[in-house]
Amino acid sequence: MNKMIVLPRCFRQLLALLIIFPVISASYLAFAQEEELKAEEVRIGVVDRQQIMRDSEAGAGVRNEFEALEQTFRNEIGTRENGLRAQQEELNRQRSILTPEAFSDREAQFALKVEELQRDVAEINKQLDAMLQYGMRQIDMKTIQIIAEIAEAKNYTLVLDKTQLLMVNTDYEFSEEVLTVLNERLPKVEITLTEEGTE
Question: What is the pTM of this model?
Answer without folding.
Answer: 0.69
